[in-house]
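Lab notebook, entry 319. We have the chain sequence and a SMILES string for nicotinamide-adenine-dinucleotide, and the next step in the workflow is to get a structural model of the bound complex before anyone spends time on docking refinements. Request logged below.

Task: model protein plus nicotinamide-adenine-dinucleotide, output structure tokens.
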Amino acid sequence: MRQHQPVNPFVCDCIHDTASCLSSSAVRNAAIKHVTIIGGGQMGAGIAQVAATTGHSVVLVDTNEEILKKSAKGIEGSLKRVVKKKFADKPDAGAEFIAKVMANVSISTDAASVVGSTDLVLEAIVEDLKIKQGLFGALDKVAPAHTIFASNTSSLPITDIASSTSRLDRFGGLHFFNPVPMMKLVEVIGTSATSQDTFDSLLAFSKALGKTPVSCKDTPGFIVNRLLVPYMMEAIRLHERGHGSKEDIDIAMKLGAGYPMGPFELLDYVGLDTAKFIMDGWVEKDPDNPLMQPSEMLNKLVAEGKFGKKTGEGFYKYK
Ligand SMILES: NC(=O)c1ccc[n+]([C@@H]2O[C@H](COP(=O)([O-])OP(=O)(O)OC[C@H]3O[C@@H](n4cnc5c(N)ncnc54)[C@H](O)[C@@H]3O)[C@@H](O)[C@H]2O)c1
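Result returned:
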């Protein structure tokens, strides 16, 4: 894992002259080859792994070296698991594969100094609107005109995040699913200001990662969470009303609907804190929508620090 060598972020390397670089609507987006991923957590590291594996040049950015070292170790560990299966009889080819992928990834703690040659800034940091806006607002001033910005947010409007920048036409959403190397879907989100060129580039990039993209407008929850979160919340309410045990509801949805996990197992996997965070945001925006109502049981579990698998207890115990 290399430290990224910064290039001059103030040098515009797009194909236009300086004047047209400043004019956002004139910018056409070429294929995305160089990606800066901000946030080396669960999602950022997963996206970095997939992008590097598919031959993209990746800079992974986080707030400190320790986190980045952990992210790099996580990527390497994940690649080793891939190699164990794919190169079972060819250990040398496996090692070569890992070295090649890891050579595509560099790390940095200074986003502003690394975006000077990037085609895409993809953000996967903490789910906080102000912090995301601050990050993109600062990078908007130093990134080249052709650079597309995208957020991996699960619950915040892309339009609100983009409003901190002057590149509304080159801003979209790329919503990946956890664990990124395993999950095939990417929701590509366009706001009312996202240009067709930008949207097409994000679709093409998702395909270049080996994913299957679907197109979606900037609507709460996009497609998957808009359907999944109300479903999981109704499962909790069903249980709260005493109409079925969580075990029976899980069995029913697995055997009756063919779902790989029941709603309570899925809630524990996603994180009850995350589910509550998403629902609270929706309730605030649309309090009269019956699909978007809080649950006492969920709130109580979160208040007790029972977030699901990651804390050892949620609806079920994991210790
Ligand atoms: N976890 C999921 O299942 C999932 C799925 C889809 C989308 N998302 C979204 O992806 C984003 C990241 O989620 P995650 O689960 O990877 O979170 P995470 O907590 O695992 O990782 C976030 C990382 O961002 C870093 N960070 C925070 N502020 C930063 C800043 N200003 N600059 C650089 N790095 C910063 C943190 O140090 C941390 O390493 C969130 O917006 C979340 O809603 C999460």
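Notes for the group: Residues 207 and 299 are 38 Å apart (CA to CA). Worth checking against the assay data. Confidence is low (pLDDT under 50) at residues 6-26.
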